[in-house]
Amino acid sequence: MKARVTVTLKSGVLDPQGKAIEGALRSLGVDGVASVRQGKVFDIELEGGDPKKAEALLNQAADKLLANTVIENYRVEVIG
What is the pLDDT along the chain (80 residues), one digit of tens a residue? Predict the structure, then answer.
């Protein structure tokens, strides 16, 4: 079974890397960029076939390791 955990900064948290990417895009001539926020994506392959169990396991993993829940939000998607 495959799953994806997407981690993003909470709104209101400064994102200097996103600002640097925003500036780089503009210097490359990419027009229309209003702002950039960066994040992390974890593609995880799991053994077993119970999506609810997999989601619960990954929520625990995100709470403990994958995300800093003080400044980051995360979303777990079980793909199949």
Answer: 999 999 999 999 999 999 999 999 999 999 999 999 999 999 999 998 899 999 999 999 999 999 999 999 999 999 97
* Cα torsion 53, 58, 59, 61: sign: positive
* Domain-wise residue ranges, the chain: 2-78
Residue with tokens 């989601």: 55
Which CATH code is given to the segment(s) 2-78? Answer: 3.30.1280.10
CA distances from 23 to 34, 37, 38, 76 (A): 10, 12, 13, 30
